[in-house]
Amino acid sequence: xxxxxxxxMSISNPMPPAEVSxxxxxxxxxxxxxxxxxxxxxxxxxxxxxxxxxxxxxxDSFSVAFALPNxxxxxxxxxxxxxxxxxxxxxYLVAGDKEKTESFIRATFTVLLVLVFAVVxxxxxxxxxxVLLFKSDHYGEMALLTRLMFPFLAFIAVASFIQGIxxxxxxxxxxxxxxxxFNLCWIVLPYLLGSRLGNPARAMAVGxxxxxxxxxxxxxxxxxxxxxxxxxxxxxxxxxxPGTRRVFALIAPTIxxxxxxxxxxxxxxxxxxxxxxxxxxxxxxxxxxxxxxxxVFVVSAGTVLLPGLAKSARSSDWPAFAAALGDCLKAIxxxxxxxxxxxxxxxxxxxxxxxKRREFGLESARLTTEVFFCHMLxxxxxxxxxxxxxxxxxxxxxxIPTYAGLVSIGVNILASLAFSRPLGAPGIALALSLASAVNxxxxxxALLRVPLPGLREELFGAARYGIRLFxxxxxxxxxxxxxxxxxVAGKIAKFVPGETLGAGLSLxxxxxxxxxxxxxxxxxxxxxxxxxxFRSLKK
Length: 539
Hints:
Elements: H1 17-53, H2 57-95, H3 98-125, H4 127-130, H5 139-149, H6 152-168, H7 173-193, H8 200-225, H9 235-240, H10 242-272, H11 279-314, H12 318-355, H13 362-376, H14 379-394, H15 399-423, H16 425-448, H17 455-488, H18 499-524, H19 528-538
Helix pairs in contact: 1-2, 1-7, 1-11, 2-3, 2-5, 2-6, 2-10, 2-11, 3-6, 5-8, 6-8, 7-8, 10-11, 10-15, 10-16, 11-12, 11-13, 11-14, 11-16, 12-13, 12-14, 12-17, 12-18, 13-16, 14-16, 15-16, 17-18
């Protein structure tokens, strides 16, 4: 039996694949801008959390409670499931059979809801036992917050399913706008509800669930406009549908490979819960700063460059494939290396400027700064892994990223156990950076063994370019250290009222000097890649 969300709409006039390519560039540009805005609001979201909770036990309890549904969202709803759904759905679009396409949508939607509601019900029922994975003296509050937030998974799963359909037909803007609404719900509701629910953490939990619902609803109009509707079929028939079976077959080998970083984050959260009060919260504040860079710059670079990688793989134009991969890696290095060096030197001012207010005091700033330093050591590797994994998936190879992901998870667990006791929360972050570096090394080693024309040359070229950028970044960093010494000496800082304003002005001066020296060295060296990249972006 079919239960349509929009009875008057049908799949009679979906957007044909031929129309997608003509608008993909425009949609890609919109997606980059919306992603940038979403990441900035994500940072404001963490600033709100820091203001209300700081690095207290309540902040740790909320962070742990959100970790489980959020991990499942990133792994299943927005990760492997979407990745597996899109190619199967695209095949139905190419075949052009309206009835079969509609049947596939209903079957997949039915299976999704059955599974996700079962997981949500199980998660809420087992919440008091799940939180025992984490070390805490406040299991009761942690379990309550977990139960409050688990329904978020159901809403976000539906949102991700709609996103998969829209992305398959070349519509990206609604999917980019959805996380913006999620962040706004998280930011606004704590101020509206305050402590009316008992404490600010519970108000944030309500904001999380409301944000998930907003993500699903905001994409529904675009889905209906494109001529699609959501419906159900008999559960047994849905599970036996050939399309859903293909989706399940694609999910299995990609889960670990695509989500190794997310699994490592969950492992870090579990281990950080035993590293003292504030450890979990400080790790998550630091990760939000790291994800700001990854989300805004790495996703934007991928939007511009990765389509060429996939196109070359489909046409078996391997020299072009190698060149596109080399360009992707160079672009990522151009962004992340200078940012990583600057952040390790200016981490304290970054943390103070963004987070230090209300419940987030000097001790919270100190702990988060130490964690942030260790996270920044792995920024380049984390960003490169996303590009390198895509190179394997573009060629249809899912095994190597999966093996590399498994090894990195093992390294993260062992290193976290070794580092957490002597170093505390910073040791957890250092272990994650080490795991990302190992993942990168394994993926590069595997690519070097692939006999494709020009691939080895491009990889070695990207490595040489990275060394060059690192040298330039160190030169800029030395100039920055000089500015820092001048400011600390009190010649400017002593005239600035307030620590937060002082950190902001210090960052401004340091950033100007760092950027000027860095850009100057690139200009003097006549960096050809930067020039070609600007020409491509201008077009």
